[in-house]
Amino acid sequence: MEPRLILTVALLISATVTADYIRPLPRKTLQFPWDPKPSSYPQQVHISLAGEQHMRISWITDDKSSPSIVEYGTSPGRYDTAAQGESTFYNYMLYRSGKIHHTVIGPLEHNTVYFYRCGGQGLELQFKTPPSQFPITFAVAGDLGQTGWTKSTLDHIDQCKYDVHLLPGDLSYADYLQHRWDTFGNLVQPLASGRPWMVTQGNHEKESILLLKDGFASYNARWKMPFEESGSSSNLYYSFEVAGVHIIMLGSYADYDEHSDQYRWLKDDLSKVDRRRTPWLLVLFHVPWYNSNKAHQGEGNKMMAAMEPLLYAASVDIVLAGHVHAYERVKRVNNGKSDPCGAVHITIGDGGNSEGLAHKYMNPQPEWSVFREASFGHGELKIVNSTHAFWSWHRNDDDEPVKSDQIWITSLVSSECIAQNRHELRKILMAP
Ligand SMILES: *[C@@H]1O[C@H](CO)[C@@H](O)[C@H](O)[C@H]1NC(C)=O
């Protein structure tokens, strides 16, 4: 059969299986018309949490002499405070980046709208700080890219009331073409300048060239995360706390064996978690450990073997991953099978990238897999209080934010698991 015919037949079959749902085709990469701005005009603005009640404001100017200053205040047009930051740039083969500014501002009030301006000129922007306590809502979408589906996903996220965006890797799909980092930065600015975007790296951020370029040069320069604030020596793994949630961002593409820096840092970070202060413990990384899609099957196994015993002993509540271009939710699991003291694993790598969806699944569906579907969309995690959280997945179906999977998740704080695992955790944390 001709490929197109096979595809049509496959679509018809899947349409009859899921009755009212017809799976969408990939959409084209967006075209960005040339939109010249004065060289000192701040572009690609995004913000991220930077330690207790502080926010890092990041933006880029073509002008290398533009100051790294942020002016801000709680009323429009009135900036009673200003902060000076740092800047960097990078070269990548023939490409020269603009001046990349990172300026930390604060202390800031919780749950408050701030108006701000970067570099002493340009547009006034605004963001809202997260609340100090529950409830708090996270928007989650990985493997974004910059296609028509990315735009659809971002539009849907924009309609939801959320406090922080979590991104488990694969941002721009620049894939060596550095100007695509710039178009991505401008594409996400309307959202990423208004709520903190907390990201970790995926394979598409690596962009290493043998003997010429180390990995993650562009990603690290542009998307600086609070690794120093969380005692990490690498932008590829860090943690932060917000409103009763401790969130650990791990690096699927940094060393993770038990002698690695990342593992040592993770032990140190977990030893500081206080479940009375942060009853919820979340972990994000790019390559899923529990995945019943045929795409990237088994790729996370080595990292899982190295790190799962530690995460299990620490009673992690939820693990969010990307990489596979589909959605899958898994029961509480550990060591390859369901376990009431393990983490709920969710793969949400369906933000809208140009590579399309991953349709092929392992059959029969493993005992631990609850819900799986190859569609573009995003997730929302509303943590209601110390014991209850509501997770929902919204597929972009026909550009309506359809809610396709939803579940209440209860925290391990309300179980016996933490007490049960206390000795095991201490043993691992004390090991040299
Ligand atoms: C937490 O939220 C859930 C769901 O709304 C509710 O049933 C429960 O009573 C709440 N617990 C506390 C301690 O408020």
UniProtKB/TrEMBL annotation:
<dbReference type="InterPro" id="IPR039331">
    <property type="entry name" value="PAPs-like"/>
</dbReference>
<dbReference type="InterPro" id="IPR029052">
    <property type="entry name" value="Metallo-depent_PP-like"/>
</dbReference>
<dbReference type="InterPro" id="IPR015914">
    <property type="entry name" value="PAPs_N"/>
</dbReference>
<dbReference type="InterPro" id="IPR041792">
    <property type="entry name" value="MPP_PAP"/>
</dbReference>
<protein>
    <recommendedName>
        <fullName>Purple acid phosphatase</fullName>
        <ecNumber>3.1.3.2</ecNumber>
    </recommendedName>
</protein>
<dbReference type="GO" id="GO:0003993">
    <property type="term" value="F:acid phosphatase activity"/>
</dbReference>
<dbReference type="InterPro" id="IPR004843">
    <property type="entry name" value="Calcineurin-like_PHP"/>
</dbReference>
<feature type="domain" description="Calcineurin-like phosphoesterase">
    <location>
        <begin position="137"/>
        <end position="327"/>
    </location>
</feature>
<dbReference type="Pfam" id="PF14008">
    <property type="entry name" value="Metallophos_C"/>
</dbReference>
<dbReference type="GO" id="GO:0046872">
    <property type="term" value="F:metal ion binding"/>
</dbReference>
<keyword id="KW-0378">Hydrolase</keyword>
<comment type="similarity">
    <text>Belongs to the metallophosphoesterase superfamily. Purple acid phosphatase family.</text>
</comment>
<keyword id="KW-0862">Zinc</keyword>
<feature type="signal peptide">
    <location>
        <begin position="1"/>
        <end position="19"/>
    </location>
</feature>
<dbReference type="Pfam" id="PF16656">
    <property type="entry name" value="Pur_ac_phosph_N"/>
</dbReference>
<dbReference type="InterPro" id="IPR008963">
    <property type="entry name" value="Purple_acid_Pase-like_N"/>
</dbReference>
<dbReference type="Pfam" id="PF00149">
    <property type="entry name" value="Metallophos"/>
</dbReference>
<dbReference type="InterPro" id="IPR025733">
    <property type="entry name" value="PAPs_C"/>
</dbReference>
<feature type="domain" description="Purple acid phosphatase N-terminal">
    <location>
        <begin position="42"/>
        <end position="122"/>
    </location>
</feature>
<keyword id="KW-0732">Signal</keyword>
<keyword id="KW-0325">Glycoprotein</keyword>
<feature type="domain" description="Purple acid phosphatase C-terminal">
    <location>
        <begin position="343"/>
        <end position="400"/>
    </location>
</feature>
